[in-house]
Amino acid sequence: MSLQGSLKDIAVADLIQHHCVDKKTVWVQIQRADKRAEVFISEGNVVHAVLDQLQGEEVIYEILGWDEGTFYIEGDVLPPLITVHRNWTALLLEGARRLDEQKLLSTYEEKSGMAKMDEILKQMAQEIDGFEAAEVIGMDGLSIAQYSRAKVNLELIAAQLTLLIKLLDTAVNKSTGGILEDNLLTTQSHYVMMRYLPGKQHYLAVIADHRNANLGNLRLVTGVYLERLSASIPK
Amino acid sequence: MTKLEELLQNVRDEIGADLVESDIVGLDGFSVAGLSTDPNLNREAVSARFALAMKLALTVSEKLNLGELQDNLVTADNYITLCRSLGDGSYFWILTVKKEATLGMVRLTMNDYAPRLWEAIPR
Amino acid sequence: MENTHQGLASLVDILKKMRQEGNFNFCVLIDKDGFQVASSANSTQDLDRKAATIALIQRTIDQVQRHMQMTSPQEVVIFDSSGERLVCRLFQIQQYPMILACIVPDRNQSYRKIMNKAIREIHQNWKL
Predict the structure, then answer these.
(1) What architecture is domain C9-125?
(2) Chain C interface, mutation test: which of A129, A149, A211, most C Cβ atoms within 10 Å?
(3) How many whole angstroms separate alpha carbon C115 and alpha carbon C100?
(4) pLDDT value, residue C65
(5) Quick check: C6 pLDDT over 70?
(6) Is the pTM of this model over 0.80?
(7) Where are the domains of chain C?
């Protein structure tokens, strides 16, 4: 008996559960990118698992988080070793607990990083004369950090300025062969400073009131804060 | 030499060796007058692309209620390009300078000459 | 007209104190591109224009250094026929070259001590 499929259609936990409940003896091969894991189920119990140099329970906990890849199952293949001793329900429960913990940690790290960036923007605002609003914006036009003192539509600002910076990027590259570093838009009532963070995946946008701001101050302070913001971007 | 060309020469004299190119373009991106000091730079291409960017900058300023657009200063690793709206916004002045240029002075020179250039554009 | 300031407030205060102590017409701190970083003036003056013009001095300084092999020039003074002086002090804060400039109206008036003190305070109060 052999079977193959995609992890998009069935989760690893379900694969294991199904064969354990039915008390099957199978060899499950799971491939994700360049990684290949093997799980041996013998008479309804997970008895051996291997992934590169790793063996045993930890392999199960690792692959439970795989949501992409393919699987191949062959029946009646005996395990070469016994490296898993926990019963399958306890294995899956522990695996689920660890996945939940990991998700919480990632969310926390992301939120911490973003909260820290908001704080940095707030500090920066104190150094900029005439400050109204600042955002760190991804090249997808979505803001990852914001601070404003004025009533402004930060989402609209992020979207519109991203269109502009992308067009300017192309203009600079195609016409002079250069690389865009920053852009300063001056209107009758505002300055809008846009500066790439190192790596050019994000940029800092700052809006200041023309009457109270001065350009030297705006350029100096935004330049200083670029590195701090870049260091705080959640990975 | 037309009045417009004469004014552009005056600007070049004021800014000096830092000036790379200077161009007056319509909303269609076509140049009505200009000069360039760098034979490796395609003045028309620079101006057409930056005129397009200025049109978008005009739209963005309106949508975000930022007030009437005055100018846009683009800093790249090789040059700095200043783009200024002229008169009723139907023409732009695209000025590219070397990185060593004193930007404050270039910007002020543009502010000073912008009204005169607008008057001199044949309409 | 004073800069209404929320940020880099200490720089504006330092310049205000300097202007008052020295009875200068204006004081301005300028970056290498000729933009004001902070200023203090006793009337509505076109400080942007003054800042941009003063920054041109940096170009001359660079040439002097290069061709005359002088080590970092620190002060440039321009007198006019009435005895009024434009004094420019060039210095660096971290990696940022700056010019501190003021107009000294009286030909007999001292300025160096006051400017030295202001520069010291700028270094001490630099928060960035």
Answers:
(1) 2-Layer Sandwich (3.30)
(2) A129
(3) 8
(4) 85
(5) no
(6) no
(7) 9-125
Using a CB-CB cut-off of 8 Å, the residues of chain C touching A221 are 7-8, 128
Q: What is the mean pLDDT of each run of 10 residues along chain B (123 residues)?
A: 92 93 92 91 89 93 93 94 93 94 92 95 87
Tell me the fold of B3-120. Beta-Lactamase (3.30.450)
Q: Which portions of chain A are predicted below pLDDT 50?
A: none
Neighbours of C108 (CB within 10 A): 6
Give the CA dihedral A209, A210, A214, A220, nearest 10 degrees. 60
Neighbours of chain A (3+ CB pairs under 8 A): B, C
Report d(CA C90, CA A214) in Å as an integer: 20
The complex scores an ipTM of 0.94
Find chain B residues with C-beta within 8 A of A190's C-beta: 66-67
Domains of chain A listed by start with CATH number: 2-86 (no CATH), 107-231 (3.30.450.30)
Of A131, A212, A216, the CB nearest to C31: A216
Q: Do A186 and B60 touch (CB under 8 A)?
A: no
Chain A residues within an 8 Å CB radius of B74? 168, 171-172, 180, 183
**Amino acid (one-letter) located at C123:** H
Examine the pLDDT at C40 and tell me if it is beyond 70.
yes
Pairing of strands A70-75, A2-6: antiparallel
| Predicted local distance difference test score (pLDDT) of residue C3 | 37
Asked if A151 is an interface residue toward chain B (Cβ–Cβ < 8 A), one would say: no
Phi and psi based region of residue A85 (left: phi greater than 0; alpha: psi -120 to 50; beta: remaining):
alpha
Which site among C1, C6, C33 would you substitute to test the A interface, given the most A Cβ atoms closer than 10 Å to its Cβ? C6
Q: Give the pLDDT confidence score for residue B27 in this predicted structure.
A: 87
What residues contact A85, with CB distance under 8 A and at least 6 apart?
none
pLDDT at A235: 65
Which of these, B60, B40, B32, B17, lies nearest to B122 by C-alpha position? B32
CB A183 within 8 A of CB A167: no
Q: Give dist(CA B93, CA A187) in Å, integer.
A: 16
